[in-house]
Specification:
403 residues; alpha/beta; Rossmann fold; 2 domains; 6-stranded parallel sheet; 17 helices; 15% strand
């Protein structure tokens, strides 16, 4: 058996690429014949996994700036199609293909290449691009979770895009390209969900086979944090509107509480300007994140979109750091049920400010910290458990039928 891992980029800046690299690590450690197709230069894969074969397109992701040719290439990347078609031509019947990210560089052309071959295809749903044109089931104009059926008339006429309606139409065109790989192809694709609550967003169309495998994660800190002894809030993630950083900034200015916001993104400078009483350093290395996390009183995940999982929230919980999460987060209900944190109304700065103020209570923070640490033991599989599970999936031994 040969494993072919596909992802837009090789540099870990988000959860999808992090999991893709963990898949490569598990496969190569198990002695599998592993090939990786990436849209960027692939240097991070070559450096970290010298035993893996790498096919790299050396192209730029859309988030680094849109170029004129991207209108066509990011809808149907012919170089990506040709590269994948060639990789599959040798031994497609013995190949398992695991797709992670494709919306930034590789485009839906990869699914057309896959549809021509008999390789087994697995896609991990790190977001909702399998069904939703903008990938988030979020109306970026209203801030509300979208209730339209993807690609319905209501969806097509909704100006929900973060840029403009013309860009929404481009996304619709890309979705049509994706769907045109054919129902016969999509009905055989196996979808790994990062969280079980993602399934209602992805089912109902051509996709038929789902299983849940929560992504592995490790605590943000080396040991359980004494959160009730600390005084600073922590945010860790991309500085974008959909991640809720503007809501967070408004709530922090209402309360005047100190906070540390770590991350990169288009709103970084805006956050630095809007929060002069907070520490907003940009991106930091792991050791510095560890130090700042150990000094944190609680963690906030203010996402406006239906956050599929929220790895960093799970990492905080595993560290005994209570979390305040948006009601749109798919883990919100379990956070509240397990006394691991609080839930605020998505996009409502007053609601978030209220929850932040509650965290001044040392007894409450200690109760939630202890609840978080206990729940953290169950929130995700251990690294060893996850590695064994992903290898079993590759080998066709799922332990339970796809549903």
């Amino acid at each position: 058996m040969r494993l072919l891992v596909i992802n837009d980029v090789s540099v870990v800046l988000g959860g999808a690429t992090k999991v893709a690299m963990q898949c490569i690590d598990a496969a190569t450690a198990a002695g599998m014949d592993c090939t990786v197709l990436v849209g960027d230069d692939g240097e991070e894969v070559r450096r970290n996994f010298p035993q893996a074969k790498v096919e790299a397109l050396c192209e730029r992701p859309l988030r680094d700036g849109v170029q004129a040719g991207d209108v066509v290439e990011r809808n149907y990347n012919r170089r990506a199609y040709a590269a994948l078609d060639n990789l599959l031509a040798a031994s497609d019947e013995e190949t398992v293909v695991h797709v992670h990210g494709w919306s930034q560089i590789l485009s839906p052309s990869i699914f057309h290449a896959l549809s021509r071959h008999g390789a087994r295809v697995i896609v991990t749903a790190h977001d909702f691009f399998l069904t939703c044109p903008n990938g988030g089931y979020l109306n970026f104009r209203s801030g509300e979770v979208c209730g339209h059926r993807p690609m319905s008339l209501g969806c097509l006429t909704s100006n929900c895009d973060k840029r403009n309606y013309l860009h929404k139409l481009w996304r619709v065109g890309r979705m049509l390209t994706q769907q045109s790989a054919g129902d016969e192809f999509w009905s055989r694709v196996e979808v790994i969900l990062a969280h079980e609550n993602m399934e209602p967003y992805l089912s109902g169309g051509a996709l038929r086979h789902f299983l849940t495998l929560r992504s592995p994660c490790k605590p943000l800190t080396r040991g359980p944090a004494k959160a009730w002894r600390n005084d600073r809030m922590l945010f860790l993630g991309r500085m974008t509107w959909e991640k809720g950083v503007r809501t967070l900034a408004e709530a922090l200015n209402k309360t005047g509480r100190p906070a540390t916001l770590i991350g990169r993104g288009p709103l970084l400078k805006e956050m630095q300007s809007a929060l002069p009483h907070c520490h907003v350093p940009g991106w930091l290395d792991d050791s510095e994140v560890d130090r700042l996390a150990s000094e944190s009183r609680f963690f906030v995940m203010p996402s406006r979109m239906p956050e599929p999982y929220g790895l960093v929230a799970a990492e905080a919980v595993m560290s005994g750091i209570p979390v305040i999460v948006s009601s749109n987060a798919l883990i919100a209900e379990e956070v509240a049920r397990n006394d691991a944190g609080l839930v605020f109304e998505s996009g409502n700065a007053d609601s978030l400010a209220e929850k932040i103020a509650l965290m001044d209570n040392d007894d409450l923070v200690r109760h939630l910290s202890e609840g978080a640490y206990e729940y953290g033991k169950r929130i995700a599989p251990s690294n060893d458990e996850w590695r064994q599970r992903i290898l079993d999936i590759y080998r066709g031994h799922t332990g339970a039928s796809l549903h």
